[in-house]
Amino acid sequence: MMTFFLMFLEQQPKVEFGLYEIAKSLTIPGWIVVFVLLLMSVYVIAIGIERWMTYNTAKQQSRIFAQKVAQALKNNNIEEAISISDKHKNSHLAMVVSSGLKEFQAHQGYEITSDELEASKRALQRAIAVKQAELKRGLSGLATVGSTAPFVGLFGTVVGIIAAFVALAKTENAGIAVVGGAIAEALVATAFGIGVAVPAVWLFNYYTNKVANFSVEMENSASELIDYFIKQRAKQLKSKS
């Protein structure tokens, strides 16, 4: 039996499966699948680089901003703190602190009531929500690519297998030379789909964790700022008593 199988293989023509040969064997649906997966891979690379630069800049600017604004608030110089915030527009902390300070500054010179404190809290929460949305920009696209790219590749696989069966049906003495190209197309589409999906999922998880860390930092900054406002109110009440 083994001898017969070896003789059968020797009678089959030798077929090379390089990139050029596979590209030549692609059908129109196969090219469509490859083109869609290429677009997905370009999107993943572009979002990955853009988000990395955005997060890196936000982290660096926030580190500098935190030191400067802390000193300004220590000196009770709210105008300087707002000016510092406006100069660090790429910092996720600066946007939040600026919103709270501007709301608080609008009531300076008047008695600081609980309503003013609540207004400042709401301003901080709105700023946090807006900044979180900005930080998450593009991440849903990564999740979409990560979840759909394997299915796009699977579609290419189905197309390749159909082409292989069609070739088998049209040929009486079918060998590897007849169905090899279609099978190669199917396997390439599957591999390409997985190759696009895996980095997309990795980047999505990594950047989602980054956004979560930024959110914690913004919440902590907002809490510290509210504490500062409460202390200012306490000083105002103490001066009047």
Describe the protein:
The chain is an all-alpha fold. 86% of the residues lie in helices and 0% in strands. The protein contains eight helices and no strands. α4 runs antiparallel to α5, α5 packs antiparallel against α6 and α6 runs antiparallel to α8. The radius of gyration is 30 Å and the shape is rod-shaped. The protein starts with a helix and ends with a helix.
Task: Kindly list the characteristics that best describe this protein.
241 residues; mainly alpha; disordered N terminus
Q: Output the radius of gyration.
A: 30 Å
Question: What are the segments in which pLDDT stays under 50 over at least 5 consecutive residues?
Answer: 1-15
Helix-residue proportion: over 70%
How many beta-strand elements? 0
Question: How much of the polypeptide forms β-strand, as a percent range?
Answer: under 5%
Structural category is mainly alpha
Number of helices: 8
What is the first-to-last residue Cα distance?
A: 106 Å
- On the 0 to 100 scale, the average pLDDT is 80
Note the main sheet.
none
The SSE string, one letter per element, is HHHHHHHH
The backbone outline, from C-alpha atoms, is: rod-shaped
Put the structure in a nutshell.
By secondary structure, the protein is mainly alpha-helical. It is 86% helix and 0% strand.
